[in-house]
């Protein structure tokens, strides 16, 4: 990991301002979907207030957010417990994608991965047949990746004396994986993935996968989410199944880089400005984990001619603190 990062004074002061005056956003396990010149943000809701499920916010600039103007729900809810959806508790880690005019939301509930759909980005997202993607065992943190040949893959976390990333081919029509293709991505191998600040079984989670120049890039978080060293790294492969080679520059998001504890579990996306960004969560404060706060940071992509891969780093001086618009 990098040496201790000296955070810019003004930004540091802004980050310490009382949450009630700045109306920060408290979504964890965050994702951002981009469409029609607008950004749409959802994630694991902080706190216990309001219905269980997922709410959606929109923004033009990534900085100021509001419930979508066209939303039929005053809270911006796009999926709600009990509304033709699987799950009774633990609604975590959503992802939105679109295929042939249908919007899909994959998420975790009851420690199972789930797929729901809607004809509108703003929902409601529901299931024709209520149930999980693969009920044979517990699995969380779903990310559905579409390859350039049209094949879908489900990346998720399964439990085996720890949290490990797995991949399997996914049938979008049936909403199920092909069990014979299920494969673990990699093990815990690097010091940054297991720091002593919060002892736990091996944990690797929060996957995002992209493809560039026939290489696959898997971004993931490591350490327990309550660990101040919760962080983000990435690995590269020639196949959706691996074998994966972890970057020597890992982690690319960590408290020593962005200046805040527990920085991880988000999603990579391309902005309206064609800039890459990573949206993630941090701990509530230096001595409190939850409710976790949302952050967004620009990402620099650079081609390494010698290695034949892209490398990634963040613009740590340009972290965005998203806030709610004043009513």
Low-confidence stretches: 1-21
- Head-to-tail CA distance between termini: 42 Å
Q: What is the residue-mean pLDDT, rounded to a whole number?
A: 93
The general outline is: globular
**In total, how many beta strands?**
23
Protein name: Glycoside hydrolase family 43 protein
GO molecular function, one term: hydrolase activity
Organism: Nibrella viscosa
Keywords: Carbohydrate metabolism, Glycosidase, Hydrolase, Polysaccharide degradation, Signal, Xylan degradation
Summarize the topology.
Elements (H helix, E strand, L loop, with lengths): L8 H7 L3 H4 L4 E9 L2 E8 L7 E3 L1 E3 L4 E2 L11 E4 L11 E8 L2 E8 L2 E7 L20 E8 L5 E8 L3 E9 L4 E2 L5 E2 L19 E9 L2 E8 L8 E7 L7 E2 L8 H4 L5 E7 L5 E7 L10 E12 L4 E6 L8 E2 L3
Parallel strand pairs: 5-23
Antiparallel strand pairs: 1-2, 2-4, 3-6, 7-8, 8-9, 10-11, 11-12, 12-13, 12-14, 15-16, 16-17, 17-18, 19-20, 20-21, 21-22
In short:
This protein is mostly beta strands. It contains three helices and 23 strands.
Structure description:
Helix content is 5%, strand content 43%. With 327 residues, the chain is mainly β. It has a single domain, classed as 5 Propeller (Tachylectin-2, Chain A). Strands 10, 11, 12, 13 and 14 form a five-stranded antiparallel sheet that branches. The protein has a four-stranded antiparallel sheet with strand order 15-16-17-18, with no helix packed on it. A four-stranded antiparallel sheet has the order 19-20-21-22, with no helix packed on it. InterPro entries: Glyco_hydro_43 (IPR006710), Glyco_hydro_beta-prop_sf (IPR023296), Glycosyl_Hydrlase_43_Enz (IPR052176).
């Amino acid at each position: 990991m990098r040496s201790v990062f000296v955070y810019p004074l003004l930004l540091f002061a802004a980050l310490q301002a009382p949450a009630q005056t700045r109306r920060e956003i408290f979504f964890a396990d965050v994702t951002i979907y981009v469409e029609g010149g607008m950004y749409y943000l959802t994630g694991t809701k902080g706190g216990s207030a309001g219905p269980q499920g997922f709410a959606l916010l929109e923004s033009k600039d990534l900085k100021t957010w509001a419930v979508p103007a066209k939303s039929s729900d005053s809270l911006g809810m796009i999926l709600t417990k009990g509304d033709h959806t699987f799950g009774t508790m633990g609604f975590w880690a959503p992802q939105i994608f679109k295929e042939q005019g249908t919007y899909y939301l994959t998420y975790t509930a009851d420690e199972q991965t789930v797929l729901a759909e809607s004809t509108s980005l703003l929902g409601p997202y529901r299931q024709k047949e209520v149930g999980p993607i693969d009920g044979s065992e517990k699995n969380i943190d779903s990310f559905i990746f579409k390859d350039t040949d049209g094949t879908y893959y489900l990346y998720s976390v399964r439990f085996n004396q720890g949290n490990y990333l797995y991949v399997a081919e996914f049938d979008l029509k049936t909403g199920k994986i092909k069990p014979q293709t299920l494969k673990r991505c990699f093990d815990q191998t690097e010091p940054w993935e297991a720091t002593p600040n919060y002892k736990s079984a091996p944990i690797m989670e929060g996957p995002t996968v992209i493809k560039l120049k026939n290489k696959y890039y898997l971004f993931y978080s490591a350490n327990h989410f309550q660990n101040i060293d919760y962080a983000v790294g990435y690995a590269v492969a020639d196949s959706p199944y691996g074998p994966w080679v972890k970057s020597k520059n890992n982690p690319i998001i960590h408290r020593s880089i962005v200046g805040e504890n527990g920085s991880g579990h988000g999603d990579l996306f391309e902005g309206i400005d064609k800039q890459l960004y990573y949206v993630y969560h941090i701990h509530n404060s230096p001595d409190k984990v939850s409710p976790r706060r949302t952050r967004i940071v620009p990402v620099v992509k650079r081609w390494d001619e010698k290695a034949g891969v892209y490398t990634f780093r963040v613009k740590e001086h340009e972290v965005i603190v998203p806030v709610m618009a004043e009513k």
